Amino acid sequence: MEKSPEMPQDILRCIFATLEIPDLVRAGSVCSSWHAAYTSLCNTGNCRLEQTPCLLYTSESIDAREAGLYSLAENKVYTLILPDPPIRSRYIIGSSFGWIITADERSELHLLNPITGEQIALPSVTTIEQVKPVFDDEGAVCNYEYLWYTGEDVIFDTPSVFLLSELRDFLFYKAFLSSDPSMGGYLVVLIHNPHSQLSFARAGDNKWIWLPPHSYYEDCLFKGGLLYASTTIGEIHTFDLDAPAVTQKVFLDKMKHIYFERIYIVQSTCGDLLQIWRSNAPSCGEEEDGSDSDLELDFDRDSHVSCTTKINVHKVEPTSRKILEISSLNQNVLFLGHNQSICLHAEDYPQLKANNVYFTDDNYDNYLYTTDFRNNRRDIGIFDLENNSSEEITTPQLWSNWPTPVWLTPNPRRMNFGTLCS
């Protein structure tokens, strides 16, 4: 029987470059020829970049080294096998360009691509301005000294001493990347405590660089070679981190006098800068035990639930240095949480709902909510801006409540075949 001619590799790569991650992985397993095209595509970085975001989570029903990946494009769950340390033992404090930023049980930070399994160690936590190592008699780090000051004031004169695994509860809030680490030349920016300050590191650095004096930052965005950082009162500061001496400017003055909402900044699909205000309430209706008493919620840690109740979208007017509230995102879609805030166009992602916000939990300030209330149901859902209502992403809940799930835009560059299985 005559053997059928194989499809040329360049044609296979062109076809594969249009696929979502699950379909790409399945195509790469069909035969040796398709696998060669698949591997070449991922190694060269020419695969499709417009991947539909997925929800990355852990679950007690799977191994501690595994993570679940819920595909919004397919409404299907996949399992990722990740490298040590076990993902369920880590904190997830950021997600950018298909990589997550995690803090392990020693409070040390790593970049991890859940699709390829590649991992990069970041500078030691002991090089952050407010952290000092404490050594035992044998010269090993046994604790961390945590200094309570910002670039503007001293909060407490006496430092705290934390266990290695305990520091991450108090220190880390969010982390962001300037670009895809698989392409090199990236920056990592941390929002960390006390009082949500900024530090950053370049690829290959061995220490974190502190960015005083300001604090109370909520979200960051890289745009036009600058870092844009938004505060809890709506200020936006810009930083040129590539300058010989880092420069800072005030791009937008404060927009409110009190901070209650979470603040996000994101670039719209047409290039506008948007500022998003997300309001939370202590509870959403009755709790699972049937109690609806606010007094009881104050004392019962396991029943304390924070829920998104309102999302307001504002367009930033750079000329007038004001913001203008807009009533609709039209065909745009937002993704908010511990991920780098994302704005997509629904016409390019037919599985997504236009004028909706897909959100996950990142409510740190409310009594260390996402780190201290670990057994509580997470605030995750889809918010419809037209009728100010939210719905669950999937029922029943697939994920464990800790670490809190995060949005991930899958990045298959240099993927290791076989890390994804259904």
TrEMBL record:
It comes from the Eukaryota. Gene3D superfamilies: 1.20.1280.50. InterPro entries: F-box-like_dom_sf (IPR036047), F-box_dom (IPR001810), KIB1-4_b-propeller (IPR005174). Residues 7-47 form the F-box domain. Pfam families: Beta-prop_KIB1-4, F-box-like. This is F-box domain-containing protein. It comes from Urochloa decumbens.
